[in-house]
Amino acid sequence: MPTILGIFLFNSREISFDSCFAQLFFIHSLQCIESSVLLLMAFDRFVAICNPLRYASILTLQRIAKMGLDIMKMACSDITVNSIYGLSGSLLIMGLDSLLIFLSYVMILKTVLSITSQAERLRALNTCVAHLCIVLLFYTPEISLTLDTQIRE
């Protein structure tokens, strides 16, 4: 955001090395955190649909707190950023998370399609629509921006 403001307000077309490094650090850190949150949301939907009677016993407060702490650890971790690491790390994180999200939705669809009642099937699918929209809104620009940035370098 500071770079964009500098371009629009002051017509500044250069960025210092320290600013570039800080910007890359925050972009990759926040990308990792956002992707992890989306993965946790997919896991939550998977448990809610595939094991609805065991939802409370599987996702206990202790387990939810533990998953939240793993995300906080990622936000505070030390990340050495360079061009190759940035691209491979971004693609690995997004690729692995998107693969796991895809697999969870394949299992969700398998479970939903086994439901005999049409109304129950639609109700189960409606719980996933918001999450799928968020995933698409997140990953589509994220992948295009990552590839665009790396191609320009």
UniProtKB/TrEMBL annotation:
Membrane topology per the entry is: Multi-pass membrane protein
Q: Name one Pfam family in it.
A: 7tm_4
GO CC annotations on file: plasma membrane
Quote the InterPro entries the UniProt record gives. Answer: GPCR_Rhodpsn, GPCR_Rhodpsn_7TM, Olfact_rcpt, OR51/52/56-like
User: What name does the UniProt record give this protein?
Assistant: Olfactory receptor 51G2
Give compartment(s): Membrane
Q: Where are the transmembrane segments?
A: 84-109, 121-139
Q: Where is the G-protein coupled receptors family 1 profile domain?
A: 1-60
Give the species.
Chelonia mydas (Green sea-turtle)
Q: Which GO terms describe its molecular function?
A: G protein-coupled receptor activity; olfactory receptor activity
Which keywords accompany this UniProt record? Membrane, Olfaction, Receptor, Sensory transduction, Transducer, Transmembrane, Transmembrane helix
